[in-house]
Amino acid sequence: MVDRPKKPSALNPISPGLAPQAQVNITHSNSRVSAVLPTGESIEVLLYGATIISWKDAAGQEKLFLSSKAQLDGTKAVRGGIPLVFPVFGTAPDHAATAALPQHGFARISRWEFLGRSTSESARTTDDGDSSVKLDFGLSPSNLDEESRKKWPYAFGLIYSVTLGREGLTTSMVVRNEGESAWEFQVLMHSYLRVDDISQVSISGLESSSYVDKLTTPISTTTSPSSALTIGSKTDRVYTPAGGPSAPVVVTEGGAKKFSLVRDNLNEVVVWNPWTDAVSMSDFAPADGYKNMICVEAGAVKGWQKLEAGETWEGGQIISL
Ligand SMILES: O=P(O)(O)OC[C@H]1O[C@H](O)[C@H](O)[C@@H](O)[C@@H]1O
After folding, report:
1. Protein residues whose CB sits closer than 6 Å to any atom of ligand 1
2. 6 pLDDT exceeds 60?
3. CA–CA gap between residue 311 and residue 265 (Å, rounded)
4. How far is the CA of 154 from the centre of ligand 1 (A)?
5. What residues pair up with 158 in beta bridges, in sequence order?
6. How big is the CA angle at 187 (ends 93 and 109), to the nearest 5 degrees?
7. Which end of the chain lies in a sparser environment, N or C, as judged by fewer CB atoms within 10 Å?
8. Which residues contact 293 (CB under 8 A, 6 or more apart)?
9. In the chain, what are the domains?
10. Across all residues in the chain, what is the average pLDDT?
């Protein structure tokens, strides 16, 4: 069990006479947690991977892309939503401690614990009730299968917090070294943002920035132009935005702002779209679904974050609408 700083309140505390509260429900035989604000915004989180599989605005419009062939039964990492990458981004054959782990590590393929909701940080209004709700999830070695524990035998505790607000979604991770010696990790929030038409999308905030292009042979590092990024073919890049984490990365569609992403302690932004290669992915559907998504992934994936015994690291992102 992961230690947590703030104890959760009951799922749906009854407070007669108060403004309406966010509703939190555990469904699908205790395998999913959903939350709805009184104003209608909602999220759904699979305990498998603590993967956010749906995020809707007050009008019920879905903000995340989820493949219609995504496996939601805990047999495979989810293709869509926001899977979590930890403790390795991709694979790292040259990094002995993580070399044996599967692509993107074990966080997205392990079942997390739901630690509860907390309302302490919810801003409230007197008229239409809770304006946010925070759900906490925990992962520690006791939640891993034996194979993952063997491959990465370190004492760790993760607390992943998902805060649904009226204007956006905040996801943050606390990583703690619970052991006696140092270890290293990478972490990333692999957001599949839903768009209507990728040909109308441009991404700003990545201009004049160093990026690693994972599609060149060998992989190359270069500097992006001073114009916004558009996507017209398969793309897989790891940017270190020149403006730093607090400068927003903005996804615009047809000239209108769709998403604005700011980061805390996550220095890199991965931009990924498989384009027509999506047809060769068994869990990607529809085949032209790549036109309706762009992965903009906030992470700490260049080099390694080192945690000494007892140390804690924290990072996160805010995706605003
Ligand atoms: O297919 P997955 O293991 O889910 O990975 C999907 C993608 O994740 C990231 O965006 C990486 O940069 C890509 O190289 C990878 O293809």
Report:
1. 77, 90, 103-104, 214, 236, 270, 272, 295, 297
2. no
3. 15
4. 25
5. 139, 175
6. 80
7. N
8. 65, 80, 192, 193, 194, 195, 198, 273
9. 23-320 (2.70.98.10)
10. 94
Is residue 194 a known part of a binding site?
no
Chain centroid to Cα 199, Å, comes to 24
Residue type, 308: E
Per residue in 286-305, pLDDT tens?
999 999 999 999 999 999 99
**ipTM exceeding 0.95, yes/no:** yes
pLDDT digits (tens, 9 = 90+) for 195-207: 999 999 999 999 9
pTM, entire model:
0.95
User: To test the ligand 1 pocket, which listed residue (76, 190, 235, 237) has its Cβ within 8 A of the most ligand atoms?
Assistant: 190
Q: Match 């309706």 to its residue by tokens.
A: 292
> One-letter amino acid identity for 142?
S
Residue 19 binned pLDDT confidence (cut-offs 50, 70, 90): confident
Distance 90 CA to ligand 1 centre (A): 7
**Which of 103, 215, 239, when mutated, tests ligand 1's pocket best, judged by the most ligand atoms within 8 Å of its CB?**
103
Amino acid at 163: T
